[in-house]
Amino acid sequence: MRRFLLILGLVVASAAFAQPTITNAEYYIGADPGPGLATAITVAAPSAAVPLAWTIPTGSLTPNLYRVFVRVRTNLGLWGPVTNSYLIVSAASQVPLLVTQFEWSVDDGSYTIVDVTDASTVNLNQLLSTVALAPGVLHRVNLRVTDNTGRTGPTTLAYLAISAPNHVTRLVTQFEYAVDGDAFTPVDIADVNPANLAQVISTVSLTPGILHSVKFRITDDLGRVSVITNQYLPIAGPTFVTRSVASFEYWVDSNPPTVVDNVDAPIINISELIASNSIPVGLHLLNIRPTDNTGRVGPVHNGAFIVMSPFQNSLPRTIVAAEVFVGNDPGIGNGVNVPLPTDGTWDEGNEPFAQVFTGFDVGYYRIGYRTQDNLGRWSGVAYDSLLVGPLLTVISSGNDVILNWEFPDGIDEYYIQRAANTAGPFTTIDSTTARTYTDTGIITTQAQGYYTVTFRDDSISVQSPPGTPARQ
Q1: CA 44, CA 34: separation in Å to the nearest integer?
Q2: If you count DSSP H runs as helices and E runs as strands, how many of each does the chain have, helices first?
Q3: 398-407 burial code (b ≥16 CB/10 A, e <16)
């Protein structure tokens, strides 16, 4: 039997000069049986304030939340007021819940019970019988399930569409339309699917040049009428008349409008008619509004345009100096000067130049260069990259080939590649953390060989010159 220990401290104070003591206590769950008729709680030592501790048998209680009521009796024979607490009775062990039964009703009819195989998840769609349901109709379905404890879940509402066993194409048999709120006009058309409804609307009595509101609905060969659809119908005149632009007005930015009386034409070149002499150089907003030969004023069109200063042909410029730098830009004029171009004189707009710089350590470098013209203006910086590779020395010693190379510290691993000719392919044969490597016994198995050494970031070292095999 499961039991719970409930501890409750009660203090009873009396207004009498002689303080009473608690001599009896009792509790009950549910309805009050009356003072002295509930389950007794042992009071070990009568006192004005006593701690109450007792065991409640819960074997007959189902798992739930209960209210426990307690009251005490004093030595004066008076019962005190009832106090209460809450008691939670949980299941002895967690039992997995399984769906054991499924109930469903269609269109608010009576429920149909389906005894399913006990499972935590049930595919209810496969258990619905749709044989008696009318096809082509949307049905209202109520669902509920019962678990293995006998509890029934809440009702869930869903909708079910039943299609016909074989799809049948319905035909449009009648068409009705109403214009601008008038009564519907029925049109008996040839049974067809689809129907071109635009060809059966009479527009003879409709005013041209006006946008009309058209409502229409159709009836199929089962007599079913569709919902009403609303669209708009523009009616053009019996003959199309081209209108001409008689005049237009324009304003730039927030300036007052200027009216231009142009030659009437369907299309005019507005840009040729706008005076830009008084408009400052820069970006402006142009607003244009035309009027046609019937006096109707069109909407405002706007767009941005740029007024530029008069064009002047520039004189040819020549390069008079150049400089280069490595890494960060030191600023204009602070780079390494290039003394002369390749042809020996700074006198052209395009000058090839080549300059030898020494003293670079092995590694990657970012090279920048710029030129200066005969007006003293410097060009932008053009950048390129430079890789200074380690010098690889290849010597033979007996039947071995010994490789030595130079490179800064900090490389995790070097990789040695070998090929039978300079065109490759180069195959990695070994790796090392040192800056030397011995290819043991290679001369006895290979007539000649070419080597490269790479390091962790896959940068390739300088190879031995072509035509210089390792074998001596």
Answers
A1: 23
A2: 0, 28
A3: eeebbbebeb
Q: Using an 8 Å Cβ cutoff, are 235 and 222 in contact?
A: no
Nearest to 136 by CA among 170, 105, 95: 170
CB burial string 428-444: b at 16+ within 10 A, e below: eeeeeeeeebebeebbe
Q: What is the dihedral of CA 242, 247, 251, 252, to 10 degrees?
A: 70
CA-wise closest residue to 140 among 109, 102, 103: 109
Residue whose tokens read 């691993």 = 413
pLDDT in tens, the chain (472 residues): 444 444 444 433 334 446 789 899 999 998 999 999 999 988 888 888 888 888 888 878 888 888 999 999 999 889 989 998 888 887 766 667 889 998 889 888 888 888 888 888 887 766 777 777 877 778 888 989 998 888 888 888 888 877 766 666 778 888 888 888 888 888 888 887 777 766 677 777 788 777 888 898 888 888 888 888 888 888 776 666 788 999 999 999 988 998 988 889 988 887 777 777 778 888 899 999 999 988 888 889 888 888 877 665 666 788 889 999 988 999 998 998 888 887 878 888 788 877 777 777 777 788 999 999 888 888 889 998 887 766 778 888 888 999 888 776 667 788 889 998 887 888 999 988 888 899 998 888 887 888 888 876 545 454 444 444 443 2
Q: What is the value of pTM for the model shown?
A: 0.27
HSE toward the beta carbon, residue 343, CA cutoff 13 A: 10
Instruction: Please confirm whether the linkage preceding 63 is cis (ω < 30° from 0).
Output: no
Scan for tokens 């701690």, then name that residue: 51
Question: Partners of 373 in the beta sheet?
Answer: 319
Cβ atoms 204, 179 nearer than 8 A: no
- With beta carbons less than 8 A apart as the criterion, state whether 140 and 106 touch: yes
